[in-house]
# Entry
Amino acid sequence: MSAPSTLPSNRSQMRKHFRSLRNSLSQTQQLDASERILVQINALTQYRNANVIACYLAQDGEIDLELLIQDAWQQGKTLCLPVLHPFCKGHLVFVKYQQNSKMVTNRFGIPEPKLNVADIVPISLLDIVFTPLVAFDDSAQRLGMGGGFYDRTLAPMIRNEISPQVYGVAHDCQRVDEGLVNEKWDIPMQKIITPSSIFNAS
Ligand SMILES: Nc1ncnc2c1ncn2[C@@H]1O[C@H](COP(=O)(O)OP(=O)(O)OP(=O)(O)O)[C@@H](O)[C@H]1O
Ligand SMILES: [Mg+2]
# Structure
């Protein structure tokens, strides 16, 4: 018989647990994490070779990619942010984000570039998508916030129609020892990157 788990067992309890962990990090820990995640990402050939990347603006204790955004701009990469799809409920579009982009706040209170059709970047043109997550395991499985937004938007990956690299980024405290149970709709991550480690898909 295995030892009793101290971790919450279902997805919604897990989300609560790991969101509270990341929200309790101090400002100093958050700053340190964002500096170290930049070093980790910069060491990846895939990032150095990427021309078009998508990332996110941190919310709810997520690891902050602001330094990565600055770096990507400096390197002349095209940087995109997710924007709620205007017609397709539960889907995202990726929109170019520049220093002078006009921002609006979406219905979740998250800032996003004001949608201008000319700035939409098709997923097939993205080299890397950095996704936020709530929890992950050693084989790079991801548990998100529960909206299924990334899963729906990147579902063509499962059908091999598109092939961006999808890397989850997280604090070390978001790692689940015991493994996550994936659902058939969960899009695969090739890697999970934390300030101290990189976990590859098995
Ligand atoms: N490709 C899809 N088509 C239709 N529904 C989907 C798809 N992917 C996910 N869903 C639905 O979205 C819901 C939430 O999915 P899930 O619990 O995996 O969210 P998540 O990965 O944590 O969220 P997010 O991607 O927004 O961070 C599920 O109940 C599922 O039915
Ligand atoms: Mg999912």
About this structure: The pocket of magnesium ion (ligand 2) is lined by residues 144, 148, 151, 186 (CB under 6 Å). The mean pLDDT is 94. Helices lie at 11-23, 27-42, 45-49, 66-74, 149-153.
